[in-house]
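ugh ok fine here u go
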Amino acid sequence: MATDGGDGTTDAALARRLQILATEHWGLLAARSTAQGEVLTRITIHLTLVSAGLVTIGLLGQASHFADWFPPAALGILGFLAAVGLLTLMRVLAVSEEDFMYVTAMNRIRGAYAEVDPVAAEVFLASTHDDELGMRVTYSFFRHRSGAEQVLGSSTMLSVLVNATVTGMFAGGLCATLGVPLIVAVAVGVLIGLCIVAAGVWYAGYRYVSAWRTYAPRSPSPGPPPHWGPWRRDGGA
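structure:
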């Protein structure tokens, strides 16, 4: 039987290997697409509920002329929105972690393609290395993105900010209902909102670092791509 001229593997064995790799690759693509679609739907539902909830609070206030039952009703709506936001944020964090895992897994498969056909691998823009740097290359072919850019532009940050705003409004409204002076209630709401932002960003970073700390790549990157210019491990440029 014909061989590849390298390690003696037959053409049939190479074809079978490529078929297995391609099947796994398509499976990962399908799983990634499903997860992304699901979390985008969750985010859309959350934002729709927040918008509808705030409009409802405004209409209730006008219709009731801010009667005695209005503050508990408004707090109930804000509390519900805060709870839904927390659940949404948990899912967003999970899918964010799943996404870079899928990308890393596909990098590993792409590296196996490169082993079978090094000539074809020369046209890959996505990385063939299944480590953190390889994952970053696949996310951004042409230039290195800083950690701040990644965080500020992420769905996680959007979800954190919305949750911080709603929860801060709930906390401030609760304080005002309990008779706390308005300026103090506003300060409490702002402080709690800022604490949620800080905690959300820290926890997202902790999950990211923890995932990579326990992972052993099969094919580590030899170094950053030349077109990226100076690069540091901490995400700076």
